Amino acid sequence: MSRPARHVFVCTQQRPPGHPRGSCAAKGSTQVLQTFWAELQKRNAYEKVAITYSGCLGPCDSGANVLVYPEGTMYSGVTPADVPEIFNEHLENGKTVERLLAPPELWS
Amino acid sequence: MSRPARHVFVCTQQRPPGHPRGSCAAKGSTQVLQTFWAELQKRNAYEKVAITYSGCLGPCDSGANVLVYPEGTMYSGVTPADVPEIFNEHLENGKTVERLLAPPELWS
Q: Keywords on this record (chains A, B) (predicted)?
C-alpha cells in the first residue's frame, strides 16, 4: 500500500477463555476489523486510509480498541455499528469521535 | 499502556511456504519484534515507546517491515541487528535512519 493519510490499527489480540485480562477478540474486535475493511472497500478509500490488525494495544478491559495514527487517537468499546461514524468523522474529515474516546486514565 | 511518544509496529504476517507474496515472518520479523521488546525492557522505555506487532503493512517483498508513528516512517529489510540503531536514532532522538527507509515507490 502507499502511505495513507490515516492508519487504523484494530486490536485483534486473543487470550484463552477465563484469562483475567480478557481480550479485544473476546469483545468482538474481529467483526470490527471486518467492518472497517468492508467500509474501506465500499468507499474505495485505499489511497487515503489503511486498516491493519494489531496485537495488544493496552487497555484490554475497555476493548475493542481501535487506534488511529498519525493523531494517536484511541477509541475504546468500539462495535461494528460505530465504524461508519469513525470513517465519516475522523478518517475522512479529521474530527475526533468524542463519545468513543478511551478514558484519559488509560490513554493520555 | 499510556500514550507513547513513538509507537512501533512490527509486521509479523505469516503466509504458507511458497506463497508468491512471501511474508515478513519468513524474513525473520518475529526475531525483530523480540529484539525490539528486549531493547524496550533494557532501556526501561515503557513510558515513551510502545512496540506492537501487526498484520501486513504492504511492501511484503522488502520485509521485514517496521512502521513508526506518529511520523509514519516505514523501514524495510530490518534485521535484529538494526534495532539498537532505530532505538538510538529515531525512537529516542527523532532522527530518521535513512539507510533503512522503505523505497519511495513503496511508501511515500
A: Iron, Iron-sulfur, Metal-binding
Residues in chain A closer than 8 A to B2 (CB atoms): 58, 106-108
Please check whether residue B78 lies inside any domain of the structure.
yes
For chain B, the domain total comes to 1
Cβ pair B54:A54 closer than 8 A: yes
Say if the ipTM goes beyond 0.90: yes
Query: Domain range holding B85?
Result: 6-107
Answer yes or no: is A54 within a domain: yes
Residue with cell 534485521: B79
Distance CA A88, CA A70 (A): 17
Coil, strand, or helix at residue B8? strand
- Residue B12 belongs to some domain of the structure: yes
Q: Domain containing A92 — which CATH number?
A: 3.40.30.10
The reply to whether B1 falls in a domain is: no
Place of cell 516505514: B74
Residue corresponding to grid cell 539498537: B84
Taking the CA of residue A60 and the nearest CA in chain B, the distance in Å comes to: 10
What ranges make up the beta strands (E) of chain A? 6-11, 49-54, 66-69, 73-75
- CA pair distance A85, A9, nearest whole angstrom: 16
User: Is there a contact between A32 and A79 (Cβ–Cβ < 8 Å)?
Assistant: yes
Backbone angles phi, psi at B26, to 5 degrees: -70, -20
Tell me the three cell numbers of residue A90.
475522523
Residue B2: band (very low, low, confident or very high) from pLDDT cuts 50, 70, 90: confident
- How much is the pTM? 0.96
